[in-house]
Amino acid sequence: MSTINYSEKIPNNVNLGEDRTLQRALEGWQPNFINWWDDVGPEGSTNHEVYLRTAVSVDPQGWAQFGHVKMRDYRWGIFLNPGDANREVHFGDHKGEKVWQDVPGEHRANLRRIIVTQGDTEPASVEQQRHLGLTAPSMYDLRNLFQINVEEGRHLWAMVYLLQKHFGRDGREEADALLQRTSGDANNPRILGAFNEKTPDWLAFFMFTYFTDRDGKFQLAALAESAFDPLARTTKFMLTEEAHHMFVGESGVSRVIARTAQVMNELKTDDAQKIRAAGCIDLGTIQRYLNFHYSVTIDLFGADQSSNAAIFYSSGLKGRYEEGKRDDDHVLKGQTYKVLEVKDGQLVEKDVPMLNALNEVLRDDFIKDSVAGVGRWNKVLEKAGIPTRLVVPHKAFNRQIGALAGIKMSPEGRVVNDIEWAAKRDEWLPSSEDFAFVASLMGRVIEPGKFAGWISPPVMGINRQPVDFEYVRFG
Ligand SMILES: [Fe+2]
Ligand SMILES: [Fe+2]
Q: Is Cell division set as a keyword in this record (predicted)?
């Protein structure tokens, strides 16, 4: 018999202690989660005490409590934003009806699929990032990596809670399978492509947290509109944590650019080889990493035309980003949206039913949001007096999913033939030589306040601590 009292061990605001069946299900799953963490979580980190924020409740005092903890003892918990007893479905065919506290039979399969797909991304990113702690550019960055890792672990808990509470035996099986698939595994990979890619170095990590965690933001925001209220309340709370992940990405890339710009000015050069020789990452390499992570991430939104997207919306399972702020009818029947296709070797726009294009709508919202941060990166270059600008590639560049999959396209959006693609590929996407160079810079800098030579220090520390604070105590 287990002596663990989960109603205390797992911080939660869902009255876990009152639901014996659920408690037992989580009791069965929890040791498997810890085994998973030990097997494929952050490598060599077992004895580190990390200055982490831990959520102990969803109110402003409770959701970000800081202190040094061993990650294995991090109190992964289950938090739902407070419910609103009068909340109504506000889009789709059920608009105006009361939201659901349990899963309606007819939507069960689709909701399970949505929750499993979201849940699968959470442990995947931990697996992708598991070696990065060995090459952290600073103790500050190491802490941020670990913060993201434990929170992705908590996001997995959030989805597992929904599966185990609302989907019976199927849900328990899906919860187990979430710990069995592994990022990049040939036989049992993660569900979505971007989550099977490698995150081999810290530039890739920053690009991933800027772009791919932002995909998380948009998916979670769309699910936060759901008529299935427990899903809406769970994802709303997850969004509070996601903001920090994107901050790590945006500020990380920004600091890489700042350091490169500084060295370019010191050496009075824009020659990539000279910049590399000085131990910094040239802007061309940064642009190629950006092209890769952007294109792989926008694939995550799915096919540009999708009957599933229409069903998810009309059934009330998944809304649009900021559904409540839009002033249309929230039913969208008879409306159209523009998607791209290739005709006679040219990209053309065509109008399709908006309900079928909702993946594209969400992708376009993501693109607007992403571009804004790239503009802030360019400000760093502008301030340093460097004329080069980073740009996001065309939406059709390097796509593997939807109508644009397999089309060879330059980053500017020109259809190219196989010969030109082969000749230019290494100018447009990171080459093996780029990866080897960036890898060569990755050392381990872990003295408080010290930073690797290819990245600038941050402007300020975490939770108002100084930059040279001892964010990680090595056991
Ligand atoms: Fe997450
Ligand atoms: Fe995240």
A: no
SS3 for 113-150 is HHHHHHHHHHHHHHHHCCCHHHHCCCHHHHHHHHHHHH
The full length of the chain comes to 475
**What domains are defined for the chain?**
6-473 (1.10.620.20)
Q: Which is nearest to 277 in space by CA: 454, 446, 135, 456?
A: 454
77-95 tens-digit pLDDT: 888 888 899 999 999 999 9
Taking residues 195-223, report their average pLDDT: 97
Looking at all shown ligands, the one closest to residue 153's CA atom is: 1
* Cα of 212 from ligand 1 centre, angstroms: 10
Ligand lying closest to the C-alpha of residue 248? 2
Q: How far is the CA of 336 from the centre of ligand 2 (A)?
A: 32
Distance 345 CA to ligand 1 centre (A): 39
Q: How far is the CA of 387 from the centre of ligand 1 (A)?
A: 36
Alpha-carbon distance of 354 to 332, in angstroms, equals: 7
Q: Which ligand gives the minimal distance to the CA of 245? A: 2
**Does 6 have pLDDT greater than 70?**
no
Mean pLDDT, to the nearest integer, of 183-198?
Answer: 95
Q: What is the mean pLDDT of the chain?
A: 94
Contacts of residue 340, Cβ cutoff 8 Å, sequence gap at least 6: 304, 347, 348, 349, 350, 395, 396, 403, 404
Measured in Å, residue 209 CA sits from the centre of ligand 1 at: 10
Q: Which residue has the tokens 């004329």?
A: 387
pLDDT, residue 3, reads 40
Over 90: is that where the pLDDT of 116 sits? yes
Q: Show the tokens assigned to 174.
A: 């899906």
Over residues 390-438, the pLDDT tens digits come to: 999 999 999 999 889 988 999 999 999 999 999 999 999 999 999 999 9
Do the Cβ atoms of 89 and 227 come closer than 8 Å? yes
Q: How far is the CA of 216 from the centre of ligand 1 (A)?
A: 6
Q: Distances from the Cα of 252 to the Cαs of 202, 207, 299, 373, in angstroms?
A: 9, 8, 23, 12
